[in-house]
Amino acid sequence: MRRIAADSSFDVAFWMLDRALDDNEYLQPQKLHRLLYLAQAYFAVASRGRKLMPATFVADQMGPLEPTIYRAFENGRPDVETRRVPDDAKQLLDSVYRKFGAHSAEHLTKLTKNHAPYRDAIAANGPGEEITLKSMMDFYGRKGSADRKPDSGAAAGGAAGDPGGAPALTDVLRPRVMRSHKGRPVNVHKWMPRSLGSGRTEE
Question: Residue 108 — φ and ψ, nearest 5°?
Answer without folding.
Answer: -65, -35
